[in-house]
């Protein structure tokens, strides 16, 4: 399994995986959001970046989308690993672990203060991996609705 930065040539693979990720979380985003996310991930001036997992055949089988941002509890920037997805037929082959480890290596190299992510309580399969590579905190997330229902 090889981990590398996202490239323009990965668009169709990334979009297919992105839609798989959204389906997994029973979520939808507009085509406009998908296009904007793609552009941000490729923009070297954006705080967002993407790493992809490529199998031995050169197929892109997974990705992680991350955002590096400032934080009030440290002078160093921190990294939010916002999205992590591996195609179902390529799971249990180490791609997700290697994606996380590669982001963690980048965090150490670039002296970021923290690497963190969230998942659904019910995502038991992923949580087995997450419990192995990271520390579960007791923070809860609240979303304030900014539009009227």
Walk me through the structure.
- The chain is globular and about 45 Å long.
- The chain has a 5-stranded mixed β-sheet, sandwiched between helices.
- The chain has a single domain, classed as Aminopeptidase (3-Layer(aba) Sandwich), CATH 3.40.630.
- It contains 4 helices and 5 strands.
- The chain has 149 residues and is of the alpha+beta class.
Write the layout of secondary structure elements.
Layout: E1 2-5, H1 11-24, H2 31-42, E2 48-54, E3 60-69, E4 78-86, H3 95-109, E5 115-116, H4 124-133
Parallel strand pairs: 4-5
Antiparallel strand pairs: 1-2, 2-3, 3-4
Number of DSSP helices? 4
SSE order, one letter for each helix or strand: EHHEEEHEH
Apparent shape: globular
Overall pLDDT level: 95
Strand numbers in spatial order across the main sheet:
1-2-3-4-5
Describe the main β-sheet briefly: 5 strands, mixed
Report how far the terminal alpha carbons are from each other. 44 Å
Assign the CATH class.
Alpha Beta
Could you estimate the helical fraction of the residues in percent? 25-40%
